[in-house]
Amino acid sequence: MNSKVKVIDHPLLRHKLGYLRDKNTYSQDFREIVKEISKVLVYEAMRDWQHLEKIAIETPIAKTEAQRIVRAPVVVSIMRAGNGMLDGALSMLPFASTGFIGIYRDKFIHNTVEYYFKMPQDIKGKDVLLCDPLIATADTMIAAIDRLKNYGVGQIKVISILTSQTGLDKVHHYHPDVEVYTVNIENEMNEMGYLVPGLGDAGDRLFQTK
Known about the structure:
glycosyltransferase; PRTase-like; Rossmann fold; globular; 14 strands; three-stranded parallel β-sheet; alpha/beta; uracil phosphoribosyltransferase activity
């Protein structure tokens, strides 16, 4: 497996993923589980964070030193499904700023269409945690990474609950430096571009739009 792909395999995650896959899981529960899994993926993505500073504090017992994260990453959502991951990500990184990319693949022109792009003014040089629950064809993910790199960001780490092997291969063909954190790699996609067995359309299930 590509060393840039981190599959976070854990019994609790497998348990929660089963509920996401289940078509009978209500939208409220679906959103909560996406939030919980997102927390774990962010935890893993931050494991090797090097930007820390030491500060002097006092506990109720004694003076000591504590560490604080500095140069926090920017959490970026690929709308709309990525928005379902934001609460989980920002609960782990409440001091992080947030960006939004609205982009989709148009089946008629066979290309991606961007309709919204909003980033913090100081994003240049900052590392990014890029959130999208699913990577299938990876076209929108690659387009989002392209745009972020145009802004001169630092390291990009992708946070995605399910991915396809085809999508991962495509991401790393164009962006071999990008790390991907996921719960599972699906072996198939159907003719509509959905992961199999997958969990359906994450945006529809998050926001009850279908």
